[in-house]
């Protein structure tokens, strides 16, 4: 049994089939499944049989062996091209690329990238790095911190732009939190795929190519680059703090809430253009503040909500409430919220309407919430407010001031006058 | 001190100013505040002073006294016009109408309606009824049941259509739950106001007029009628189960999610038109199933969520999860969810994407959730799924079947092919 063999792995509860990858230890097998995900299996607990030998050519980590079909064992560094770092966290788009090992923190190089997406050739010099290999619903604050550190290291090492390959489920949360953690002199562009590479309708190639073009642009912000429509013509560039996955399956699921996207990438002309003002390349120096207060929750209020949910957040550092309308909850909950605040929990109000600002000065309920000490987050999206509160509690001396101020485009100018 | 006097009420914690209304008991004062809301005050606990006598003419409940400025003491019933019942639950729009008493269950008649919104004259014969007078963030399942009973009684008494005046914060939840509780042979049209009547930009008149026109139409469904744009030209008619307040303050905040509105009302021509198929007037007989299982929660999953939230719903009858993407949560939560289901809690999956169907057959996480016994709700909106689950647990023999079936338009045909 050797790396590259097609194997079946029988465990007590489940059977996998896939290609055996090289592994750093003999105790653990790493198998690449059909969908592209890698699964790690404890060798002792599994029954493994070889289905076919040597079905897949695995590059040696020393690159001395025979190489892929193109026959080019080295991609030359081109001084005329920018260097783009591709960081992978997992998800459908990452499964396109065959990492040479199943381990997290594995490196991958230009060859791996170009074998997976040949259209990327000639656009940049590439560096690749695996930060995580998870389904994005399993994203957690410590991985955000690893990702921010990795992005920062790549920029410090000279990357002219960074592309983060990420599952689409939680991309908006990750793009938001990195917007707060990092001041960046170069573009940091998240991209992903709503359909895997084995489907005719896959969006992975166009999204990857467009993300690289965006990472070469002069917009030094955290962006999300995904299909702008169901056609393969334009990718939209969304500000990381204002983007939301608004459809479960469409390729153009990602939208900027409450505004047009910041810009777009024309797939045919490769032109990147922006509609509004943005922070330009090299406008700020690289800096990183990756600390997060993890003990922050998001609570969505709906009619009939059990007040016990407020008991769960008792003692928490912070809670973001997704209220109704201008930022309301049942008035019976207000004394309990006041108590939480008196006991040291920071409570921030957002709206489940998603668009528009909360404004708790209009109705009695809102005024009572403000009197209780609730902090308004303007039109910050609830998910963005959650990760911002995690960040602000760990990094800001004045959390109320921070939550009411736009630090990374998360609060928009009032687009609709109140009257 | 008499009804109609302008008074100041000082309580331990707060001072009110407003017009004293007639009250059914001497122990309780009812004061109409500037914003239009009524507040009830325990007489013993309050210090009341008259600021000005007889500032407001209060109609006697026997209608024998002198009447309003128009001098018409009776509005004649017009055989050629349909009869529309106006039910009020409170909210900004209801504050337009001066009820003759501050009590819930108060009646109001055509005169009250036409004094408040003269543009309603000549469109219908009106009956009026106060079901509740609450801020809509305080909406609760028992009030939904009262409202359904009241609507049913009005239809049984011969109303050709019903208009429900409702605060906008939770209108979508109320319209949804009535869609499940009632089979109706006539239109039931919710309307409200995003700006109160004392503002130049108020939307209350156009919304009320358009709702009455919709209530005269042949669409025998539960609808929401609100501004379709920022202009005063067209109101959109949304199916009650698919509508969402998508902006905190705009007059056109309400949108049908994942489709065009079902129809609209042209304010100038008064024409009501529909874009798609709908249930027609008299297609079904009136019936009501108002039972609700109140012990149902909605839980929004976000990265870093404390698993303790699942402990709160332990023993609950049901919980709707607002998952990521196609309907996912962190895989660490799945064993706990399985345990909940084994202990009798019905767990339903929806998506925080809002548009698009959940589909847990695509990725491992989803398949594990299905194996654990989670029920998929198609593209039912999370809030609609919560009230539907409340209803289904009380009225359906097969809750899984019910949650996967469109009972009132809450699950749409697949509008976007999967590939």
TrEMBL record, chains A, B:
List of catalytic residues: 92, 168-169, 245
What is the enzyme's main class?
Answer: ligase
Task: Enumerate the PROSITE patterns for this protein.
Answer: ASN_GLN_ASE_1, ASN_GLN_ASE_2, ASN_GLN_ASE_3
Q: Where is the Asparaginase/glutaminase C-terminal domain?
A: 295-401
Q: Does the keyword RNA-binding feature in the UniProt annotation?
A: no
EC number(s) in its UniProt entry? Answer: 6.3.5.-
| Region feature Disordered, mapped onto this chain | 58-77
Output the CDD domains linked to this UniProt entry: GatD
User: A GO BP term, please?
Assistant: translation
Q: Which family does it belong to?
A: Belongs to the asparaginase 1 family. GatD subfamily.
What NCBIfam families does this protein map onto? asnASE_I (TIGR00519), gatD_arch (TIGR02153), PRK04183.1 (NF003217)
Concerning PANTHER family, the annotation shows: 60 KDA LYSOPHOSPHOLIPASE (PTHR11707:SF28), L-ASPARAGINASE (PTHR11707)
Q: What is this protein called?
A: Glutamyl-tRNA(Gln) amidotransferase subunit D
Q: Which gene encodes it?
A: gatD
């Amino acid at each position: 049994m050797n790396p590259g063999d097609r194997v079946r792995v029988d465990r007590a509860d489940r059977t996998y089939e896939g290609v055996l990858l090289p592994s750093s230890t003999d105790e653990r097998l790493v198998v690449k499944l059909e969908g592209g995900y890698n699964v790690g299996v404890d060798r002792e607990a599994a029954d493994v049989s070889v289905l076919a030998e040597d079905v897949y050519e695995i590059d040696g980590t020393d690159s001395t062996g025979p190489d892929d079909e193109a026959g080019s064992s080295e991609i030359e560094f081109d001084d005329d091209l920018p260097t783009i770092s591709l960081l992978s966290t997992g998800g459908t788009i990452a499964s396109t690329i065959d990492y040479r090992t199943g381990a997290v923190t594995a490196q991958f190089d230009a060859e791996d990238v170009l074998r997976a997406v040949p259209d990327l050739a000639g656009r940049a010099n590439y560096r690749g790095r695996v930060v995580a290999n998870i389904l994005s619903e399993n994203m957690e604050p410590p991985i955000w911190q690893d990702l921010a550190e990795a992005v920062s290291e790549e920029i410090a090492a000279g990357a002219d732009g960074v592309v983060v390959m990420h599952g689409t489920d939680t991309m908006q949360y990750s793009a938001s939190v990195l917007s707060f953690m990092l001041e960046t002199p170069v573009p940091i562009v998240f991209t992903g795929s709503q359909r895997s590479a084995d489907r005719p309708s896959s969006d992975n190639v166009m999204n990857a190519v467009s993300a690289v073009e965006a990472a070469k642009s002069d917009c030094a912000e955290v962006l999300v680059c995904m299909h702008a429509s169901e056609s393969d013509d334009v990718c939209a560039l969304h500000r990381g703090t204002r983007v939301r996955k608004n459809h479960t399956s469409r390729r153009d699921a990602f939208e900027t809430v409450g505004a047009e996207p910041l810009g777009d990438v024309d797939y045919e002309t490769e032109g990147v253009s922006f509609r509004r003002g943005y922070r330009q390349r090299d406008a700020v120096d690289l800096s990183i503040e990756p600390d997060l207060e993890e003990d922050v929750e998001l609570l969505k209020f709906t009619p009939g909500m059990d007040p016990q949910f407020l008991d769960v957040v008792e003692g928490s550092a912070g809670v973001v409430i997704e209220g109704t309308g201008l930022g309301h909850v049942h008035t019976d909950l207000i004394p309990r919220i006041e108590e939480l605040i008196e006991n040291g929990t920071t409570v921030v109000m957002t709206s489940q309407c998603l668009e528009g600002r909360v404004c708790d000065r209009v109705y009695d309920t809102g005024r009572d919430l403000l009197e209780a000490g609730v902090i308004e987050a303007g039109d910050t999206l609830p998910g963005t407010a959650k990760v911002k509160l995690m960040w602000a509690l760990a990094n800001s001396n004045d959390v109320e001031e921070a939550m009411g101020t736009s630090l990374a485009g998360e609060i928009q100018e009032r687009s609709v006058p109140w009257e």
